[in-house]
Amino acid sequence: RRPFPRPTRQRIITVANQKGGVGKTTTTVNLATALAMHGCRVLCIDLDPQGNASTALGVDHRSGVPSIYEVLLGDRPLEEVVVRSSEAEGLYCAPATIDLAGAEIELVSVVARETRLRRAIAGLRQEVDYILVDCPPSLGLLTVNALVAAKELLIPIQCEYYALEGLGQLLRNVELVQAHLNPELRLSTIILTMYDSRTRLADQVVHEVKEHFGNRVLGTTIPRNVRIAEAPSYGRSVLTYDPASRGSLSYLAAAREIAERGFEPNGVGV
Ligand code: ADP
Ligand code: MG
């Protein structure tokens, strides 16, 4: 296991796409695990009330456990809700419980409602190399909080017919956030997921996305692989569930690419 280069400055990466089922959660937990397995300290923040990222990292997220909800709405320090994941040494998770379902509405009347997560991360004393934020499938205040807190945006795109539909809406929201709340935010990475080599359509989507987003698209494409889909029901990432699977190897390669590319704060824009 050749270690990955650790970033000189902390990287905060939000994984967003308002479409459901495109691989946001899968990408977040598997990249986080791969980075941690290769010597990086990684915090995964679950910002989806469904708590799928918490589940996949084997972290308790039953209603009542300390969670990101209390951080966003109760001023609870982030480190008080962070727990270790047994998926890898140096991997941590701030879980989401179903309480978070109300947060979208409750946040509306809170002071500085768009910057709650950014402030919580700024107050974190625990030193981590990467913070990965898994967003819900919407462009509401939870996703806005994630975009305001991050320096980098990673968009997973599923290799299917309507792949690019809805992206315009996401990118307009990103521009608004850049203009008003977080000028540092950059769309740094696109990852193509659920690639099926048997269909010509998948290749067309890959081509179209690369044409549109250039070198922000990772060279590694994630194949459709049943081991990836099975892993969460065992509370595991695919990297420990089936290390030799194509799914595991592809997320490992994607994580290595992300680590080796690094991030230039004033590099590529949206
Ligand atoms: P999102 O978080 O965007 O809603 P998920 O990561 O939960 O999407 O993925 C949606 C579904 O597709 C899940 O059941 C997941 O296990 C499955 N899935 C994701 N990526 C793959 C893949 N590469 N191969 C097979 N199944 C996948
Ligand atoms: Mg999800």
Automatic annotation (TrEMBL):
InterPro entries hit by this protein: AAA_dom, DNA_Partitioning_ATPase, P-loop_NTPase
Residue intervals of the AAA domain: 11-186
Entry-linked Gene3D superfamilies: P-loop containing nucleotide triphosphate hydrolases
SUPFAM superfamilies: P-loop containing nucleoside triphosphate hydrolases
Top-level taxonomic group: Bacteria
Pfam family name, one: AAA_31
Name of the protein this chain belongs to: Chromosome partitioning protein
Organism field: Protofrankia coriariae
